């Protein structure tokens, strides 16, 4: 007897359920994109998650996500090339319970539970107690949990990958609400804002002190792209396009 398939968790229904090609006056059967196929497109192509992160979000195996994602892209390609309508619906799915599941990729991340605010999370780019100055190269973050305006716990976590897209997705998967950092470029800003993460950039000094200042309303920070750090990272071995500098940086990085 075959093992029953595991239901795929999705974070919400799509805002539009049908797309019709303009100028195609022939009646043709629509291509059906199931809800779990749509979810893989939303998480991987729109939100920039890896297939591993997508699998964790949907509560299935990575191989399952790979198969669903491949099928979804094939259907979208067929709709575009053949001029067929695209409909979204069906599939063995379950809607996540935003109040009970810390679903950072939900379109409207709920921050209230049983009428009370949930714990807020602040991530700081971290290096030996100090705020690391290159967001895109950050190897560690210090993650603070805040409740009722006070730090209730903190821990140092190793980042997975580098570059603004991977780091933004990593922070999103850890449920981060705010990030404190030093130099950060426009691409990184866009990636973080896409996940609803608030940015406090251009900050230097002690990480704990910066969090205390943010909670006290005295943190001097900027939400504009910046990259003012010019130490050895910008030497001869510096690789452009990885640390998140803005377009006006002298090495003309565009990450």
Helices and strands, with pairings:
Layout: E1 8-10, E2 18-19, E3 31-33, H1 35-46, H2 51-58, H3 62-82, E4 86-88, E5 93-95, E6 112-113, E7 116-117, E8 120-127, E9 130-131, E10 140-147, E11 150-158, H4 164-173, E12 178-180, H5 186-194, E13 198-200, H6 207-216
Parallel strand pairs: 1-5, 3-4, 8-12, 12-13
Antiparallel strand pairs: 2-4, 6-7, 8-9, 8-10, 10-11
Helix pairs in contact: 1-3, 2-3, 4-5
In short:
The protein has six helices and 13 strands. With 255 residues, the protein is α/β, with parallel strands linked by helices.
What does this structure look like?
- It contains six helices and 13 strands.
- The chain has 255 residues and is of the alpha/beta class.
- Strands 8, 9, 10, 11, 12 and 13 form a six-stranded mixed sheet that branches.
- Helix 1 crosses helix 3 and helix 4 runs parallel beside helix 5.
- The longest helix is centred in the first third of the chain and has 21 residues.
- The N and C termini lie far apart (51 Å).
- The C terminus is likely disordered.
Tell the overall outline.
elongated
The rounded distance between the terminal residues' Cα atoms is 51 Å
C-alpha Rg (nearest Å)? 21 Å
Mean pLDDT: 79
Share of residues in helices: 25-40%
Outline the biggest β-sheet.
6 strands, mixed
**What is the element string, with H for helices and E for strands?**
EEEHHHEEEEEEEEHEHEH
Task: Give a quick set of tags describing it.
255 residues; alpha/beta; 6-stranded mixed beta sheet; 3-stranded mixed beta sheet; 27% helix; disordered C terminus
């Amino acid at each position: 007897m075959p093992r029953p398939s595991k239901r795929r968790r999705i974070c919400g229904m799509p805002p539009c359920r049908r797309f019709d090609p303009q100028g195609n006056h022939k009646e043709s059967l629509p291509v059906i994109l199931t809800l779990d196929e749509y979810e893989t497109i939303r998480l991987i192509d729109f939100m920039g998650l890896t297939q591993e992160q997508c699998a964790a979000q949907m509560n299935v195996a990575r191989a399952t996500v790979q198969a669903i994602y491949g099928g979804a892209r094939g259907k979208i390609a067929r709709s575009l090339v053949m001029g067929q309508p695209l409909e979204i619906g069906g599939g063995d799915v379950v809607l996540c319970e935003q109040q009970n599941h810390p679903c950072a990729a939900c379109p409207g991340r709920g921050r209230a539970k049983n009428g009370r605010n949930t714990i807020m999370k602040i991530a700081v780019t971290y290096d030996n107690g100090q705020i690391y100055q290159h967001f895109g190269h950050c190897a560690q973050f210090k993650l603070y949990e805040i409740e009722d305006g006070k730090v209730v716990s903190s821990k140092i976590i190793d980042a997975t990958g580098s570059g603004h897209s991977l780091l933004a997705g990593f922070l999103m998967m850890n449920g981060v609400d705010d990030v404190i950092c030093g130099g950060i470029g426009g691409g990184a800003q866009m990636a973080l804002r896409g996940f609803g993460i608030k940015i406090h950039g251009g900050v230097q000094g002690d990480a704990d002190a910066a969090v205390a200042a943010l909670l006290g309303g005295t943190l001097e920070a900027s939400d504009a792209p910046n990259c003012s750090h010019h130490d050895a990272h910008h030497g001869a071995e510096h690789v452009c396009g990885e640390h998140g500098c803005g377009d006006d940086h002298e090495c003309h990085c565009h990450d």
